[in-house]
Amino acid sequence: MLGMRKISSILTGLALLLQTSLPPLASSVQSDDPIGASGFIRRRQPVSPSSNQTTQTSRNFEARVCVPPDLVTNESWRYPYPGSEMDVFKSLLRDYILAHGDPGVQYRIKDQAFEIFRRARRASAPYTPDPRDLLDEVSTQQACPPTNYTNALEVGPDDSPPNPTAQPSAVKSPAVGKDPAERKCEELADMPYDPQKVGSGVPFAQINISEALPVCEQAATARPLRARYQYLYGSVLYKAERYAEAAQQYSMARSAGYAWGSLGLGMLNASGLGVPHDYDRAASLYREAANAGIPPAYYKLGGLYETGHGAPLDWGEATKCYEKAGDAGVAEGYAQLSTLYVTGKPQNYAEAAKWAQKAAQGGSPRGSLLLGWHYLTGNGVQKDEALAAKLYGEAARQGLPEAMYGLGIIYWVAKDLGTAAHWFHEAAQKGYTQAQDSLGNMFYHGWGVNQDSHAAFTWLLPAAQAGSARAQRLLGIMYDDGDGVTRNPAEAAAWYRKAAERDDAFAMTQLGVHLRLGGGVPWNEAEAMQWFRKAADKEFALAESSLGYGYMQGLGQDRGQGMQDYGQAAYWLDRAARRGDAAAQINLGQLYERGWGVDRDLQQAKNLYLQAARSPVPQYKKQAEMLVAALSAETRRKDDSFDKALPWILLGGAALLLSAISSSSGKGNRPADSRESSVDVVRQGIDFDQKMKDQQSLDDAIQRLARTGTADCTGGLGCASQ
Q1: What is the full DSSP assignment across 437-459?
Q2: pTM of the complete model
Q3: Pairing state of beta strands 135-139 and 105-109?
Q4: Are 263 and 290 contained in the same domain?
């Protein structure tokens, strides 16, 4: 039986990061001159595993994007505010272009695209429009319209929910007359806004559970019972995720008249942790705490007014609550107030910048991050990228993962990849998914760090488990290749499935390959064709080629195995061939030569073979050249050389192993988050790593298939009758 080797298909994309809204430093910012806009999809260059030098990506092709002027002048296209509609719109288009970018296509954003997107998002039943409805595709030889702006699709930090406990307070109240357990509990668990705190207080995220839990339990249970320590013990239990016990301690503190207990209970009710999920109850408890003058209660209550959960949707009331929280020492209130002025209608960037500055001055890391965004974009303030970088740095050094990640992006854009990797690592250690994903990619490629597949796997795994489709896809590749982890086709297929279910076209195609070959999963040609179709509908060339091959061979169709549909085969192979897929060009040439599904046209067949003959993949090149030569005679179908060639080509369809469309440098393709391995060109179970070492064995396999119509096929690996 013929061997079957691992599947490796390589696409390309932007080198590392698919986040939004963070621009390059001054040296990299493009002009606003209306001369045509470019968004870049970059091919990765090979990296020596032993190199410890900073490695940079280089462009082998550019997917150009033309941006209408109103998006730049009126809608903050260049630097959208984190989490805004423009931020989501820009990410939608970028992700689509990165996944499906074609070097032969220029993408023009339609004039009404953003308005279409905005109406869809604000509909009574919100939905995300298809990116293809928002873009036009034309040849790259055509210039962008003269009114369009120059702007690259940049990357940047996410807009994560605020942490209202992240800033210190200058108020000090030394402990007097307290036993050691009480004093130690206060030192380890006091909130920064508590006027009775010891020292500057401890942000909730920084509570050391192992140290605080025993001393706060001792303080809370000592006689006579004291509500303050019941609350502090409840907060430590909350941090330890012992929510039901935390609710008990908060309830006892509240019953004793300690209003901080009302705040703690409200937080549990709002999140449904340890108690029933009840926004109305949470709002009542927050008001109770706010009326008692508990500063964070204003902030929490503002959040309910902002979202309409447990309180009327009222941004005016939300604004008042956030300002009260800030005035009471919760600087995060000012930060959220700043956000309201950016996301509200109408926007007021100057007012937003004012509140962001107050938040930063009050010690809010998020305030520094938002103020940095204002200086980075020039929205509401005079643009100052150096000051912006400084503010991101301040927020990062205060422990804000989003800021650490954003600072990493700043260094990435400035081509200081080593420092970028440092800040990604800092954010990744705090569990920030995007940073884990990005750091894993840097280790995988050797960008700014020594190439280390084991380290790459270590960081990609938690990102994939958190739902990053890109990390899931790359884990599939690593399991397929045995790179950084023991080769495991079943695990590869499992991760491809997870990414495919998150709408990743590459993963859909690779899952289809595993199903077609029975690699790590039960053979299921029907399901394979379904996944190929889903990816092909996203204009993914390798999936189109695989789907066309399936129709050509009658694989996995509803009307029965073995029923060829040459019309559908020609349609999908033509789409893939136009995108440069050499296997599709060869198979489509076969259809033209035989008149199957298309009018017989020997010249068109020859043209397709000539295109495939330019492929840098040696096996494609050799077979295409042989077919061109064979077309010199009308009796080609009777020719012995053709009889030997045809089975190879039928085996060589894009359906089975999806050898990549090669780049101009002759390297195969994978997504940007995959390091290149050997060029895989095997189809239907022929293992070229072994068989090409023994050409006679390969010739024997071809001749056997020519004679019998099979190549030792078992398990239904595409063994349709010829």
Answers
A1: HHHHHHHHHTSSS---HHHHHHH
A2: 0.61
A3: antiparallel
A4: yes
